[in-house]
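Hi, does anyone understand the following?
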Amino acid sequence: MSRRGQGGCTINDVARHAGVSPMTVSRVINGETSVRDTTREKVAEAIRQLGYAPNAAARSLASARTVRIGLLYSNPSAAYLSEFLLGSLEQCSRSGIQLVVEKCDAERGERHAVERLIATGVDGVILPPPLCDSHDIVEWLEAAGLPAVVVATGEPPRSASAIRIDDERAAATMTRHLLELGHRRIGFVMGHPNQTASGLRLKGYLSALKDANVTPDPELQVQGYFTYVSGLDAADRLLNLTPRPTAIFASNDDMAAAAIAVAHRRGLDVPHDVTVVGFDDTALATTVWPPLTTIRQPVAEMSREAVVVLADAIRSAAAGKPYRPTDALMGFTLVRRQSDGRPVG
């Protein structure tokens, strides 16, 4: 719907003239403070040149327009991404929202992906990991006047809403579980260093060891990148140690599944010879043998909540209400299956 002013000019005409989105024009008209001064001046000048006068009746219909949400993704875990997409698609279907999915590939870069998504006319954008930690993307969307929701970040930005869990506490909970089973030599496969959640999971692991008076061993902390292949390399490094760890805690299920594969290749029984646990509880956790003990991060539920939060922000802005980012902390669960046990000997 293009809101036509009293002089025949539409808000879309003003947006094109100023080089901004219609949402930004709406925010300027409604006197919101979330618009940059330079952008506000460009919009004001376009309004003056075109003689645009907002139509109050059209404004009252703004909340009834179809909401179009963009989802920008770049995730190495197919299991995580499929669950995330399923949640967002389900919620969009229930709410009558159009979902535009755009891939951010390494060759063309983040800026190109954002520009392609904005060009489709989306009203707001959801950013799952790892893009949830891209300050550049959040800033570009803010400059374009588009609200954003980041999912699973460890450091919510001030200008975007966030849906997340307490990664540090979740990792500490799993580490305490392993300690209670009797493990003291616990290997930890870190997540990708470009994601804030990775650092929080490492912090949780270390804090639980400290609370149990177990001195952390740097040799047992191995870098991974949230991919299956990186999990293979990390597990090989850990199981080459003497003495080897009696348990491996991987920062996601992909790397934990890889650790199980490496253990089996070496003739080790899981969990009799080595316990392996993961994080996320994606579909992969129940397709490997033995099924993974893991931390359940409610990925699909977080994705659905992101759609709800973003749709509310878009409709509120269209109705002339100021955009106030929210930070929603969701719960996690430790799910025990067959991949963990007490250390032998």
Remarks:
- The mean pLDDT is 88.
- The two ends are 71 Å apart (CA to CA).
